[in-house]
């Protein structure tokens, strides 16, 4: 998969992991998500196609915004928190030491994230979008470091839990696609193709 495709997919997936499916930002991207299987060469094309079918079936679900709220905004008990510090820090708290290290990493590399939302920067979707921004700015070594030193050390746990959540088939499918994407991205980084 070429770098432009990797960046495009990071933006697309990042947006759906960060914004509600009915938000003004994400609505124009729905068609791209539903056809993400056609945007790249996937390791397991059939699996990605099947996930796209689930996404297409679920995108009109009237409960999708509520599901997003439960999984990403913390309505009640949050079953699968999307922030790295919850998985990395000893106390399993938001805004822990790993979040602070990530914030310093971003600042040292001249990246300030201002999404208009008041939440930690180590949110899964926001991290994918930060990677895309760094890659677009040709800061490839920093983009690689973001993935290897900050995102990949906890994302497999998060995505595995999201794949098995009992709240949303839509986000189960999205987690499967993100897992496949990150594997391709990490393979490209390992082979120094990024």
Number of discrete domains: 1
CATH first level: which class?
Mainly Alpha
What is the typical, i.e. mean, pLDDT?
Answer: 93
In DSSP terms, counting alpha (H) and pi (I) runs of 4 or more, how many helices?
9
- Share in helix: 55-70%
The major β-sheet equals: none
Number of strands: 0
Instruction: Report strand %.
Output: under 5%
Which stretches are poorly predicted, pLDDT < 50 over at least 5 residues?
A: none
- Gross morphology is globular
Going by CATH, the architecture would be Orthogonal Bundle
Q: What class, by secondary structure content?
A: mainly alpha
Radius of gyration: 16 Å
**What series of H and E elements makes up the topology?**
HHHHHHHHH
The CATH topology annotation reads as: TorD-like
N-C termini distance: 10 Å
Let me know the CATH homologous superfamily. TorD-like
InterPro entries: DmsD-type, DMSO/NO3_reduct_chaperone, TorD-like_sf, TorD/DmsD_chaperones
Keywords: Chaperone
Protein name: Molecular chaperone
Organism: Gilliamella apicola
Provide a descriptive summary of the structure in words.
There is one protein chain. The protein has one domain (3-190): TorD-like. Helix content is 62%, strand content 0%. It is an all-alpha fold.
